[in-house]
């Protein structure tokens, strides 16, 4: 949904139909519509915060922690849309890790990528994090040197350039950098490691 769905909004029925078509193309086997419907319901409950005003059992109103990301929202009774935006709370280390992984799996041999590919490409970080064009540009412009990327907007062409340091070494060091910073902010975690 986050990387292949090409619309901003969807209904449950549209999503089930789309998934059935993908399953048929990829597996050549018949897929149970009931199973897909349950999967879609679970996907929606995972990413959309519950309506606390509804008359449901208390257990049904517990939200999955992932819903706090605000990636999806309910627009109407059975209409949902993605919340594309700036995402100011997206940590730079997580963004850099996702860029390296995207590059390694999609376009390993290329040294540059267009802005549009990073924003809308299949499996791209723009799609995965539901970034708007303004949001992606803001994040790319503020990438620190240690991330291994340069963002260039010369001549009206927007490009992301991968430097050697982003090509060499395991991208896991970017996640380690993030979690090390989080641990240093948490006094209890720091005390435990001391």
Task: Give me the CATH fold name of the largest domain.
Answer: Arc Repressor Mutant, subunit A
Number of helices: 9
Q: What sort of overall outline do the alpha carbons produce when their principal axes are compared?
A: globular
The end-to-end span amounts to 43 Å
Major sheet description: 3 strands, antiparallel
SSE order: EHHEEHEHHHEEHHH
- Share in helix: 40-55%
Q: How is this structure best summarized?
A:
Helix content is 46%, strand content 11%. It has helices at 12-27, 33-47, 92-106, 115-120, 125-128, 133-141, 164-167, 172-185, 187-193; strands spanning 9-10, 72-76, 79-82, 112-114, 149-152, 159-162.
Fold blueprint:
Elements: E1 9-10, H1 12-27, H2 33-47, E2 72-76, E3 79-82, H3 92-106, E4 112-114, H4 115-120, H5 125-128, H6 133-141, E5 149-152, E6 159-162, H7 164-167, H8 172-185, H9 187-193
Antiparallel strand pairs: 1-3, 2-3, 4-6, 5-6
Helix pairs in contact: 1-2, 3-8
Please describe what this structure looks like.
- By secondary structure, the protein is mainly alpha-helical.
- It folds into 2 domains: 9-82, no CATH class; 92-185, Arc Repressor Mutant, subunit A (Orthogonal Bundle).
- Helices cover 46% and strands 11% of the residues.
- It has helices at 12-27, 33-47, 92-106, 115-120, 125-128, 133-141, 164-167, 172-185, 187-193; strands at residues 9-10, 72-76, 79-82, 112-114, 149-152, 159-162.
- It has a 3-stranded antiparallel sheet. The chain has a 3-stranded antiparallel sheet with strand order 4-6-5.
- A hairpin with a 6-residue loop joins β5 (149-152) and β6.
């Amino acid at each position: 949904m986050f990387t292949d769905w090409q619309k901003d909004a969807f209904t449950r029925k549209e999503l089930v139909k789309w998934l059935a078509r993908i399953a048929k193309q990829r597996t050549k086997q018949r897929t149970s519509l009931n199973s897909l419907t349950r999967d879609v319901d679970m996907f929606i409950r995972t990413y959309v915060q519950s309506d606390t005003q509804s008359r449901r059992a208390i257990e049904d109103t517990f939200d999955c922690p992932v819903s706090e990301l605000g990636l999806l929202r309910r627009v109407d009774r059975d209409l949902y849309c993605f919340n594309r935006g700036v995402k100011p709370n997206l940590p730079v280390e997580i963004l850099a890790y996702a860029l390296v992984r995207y590059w390694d799996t999609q376009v390993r041999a290329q040294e540059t990528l267009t802005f549009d590919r990073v924003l809308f490409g299949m499996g791209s970080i723009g799609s995965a994090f539901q970034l708007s064009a303004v949001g992606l540009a803001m994040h790319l412009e503020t990438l620190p040197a240690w991330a291994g990327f340069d963002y260039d907007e010369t001549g009206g062409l927007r490009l992301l350039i991968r430097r050697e340091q982003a090509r060499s070494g395991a991208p896991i060091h970017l996640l380690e950098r993030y979690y090390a910073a989080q641990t240093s902010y948490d006094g209890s975690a720091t005390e435990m490691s001391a």
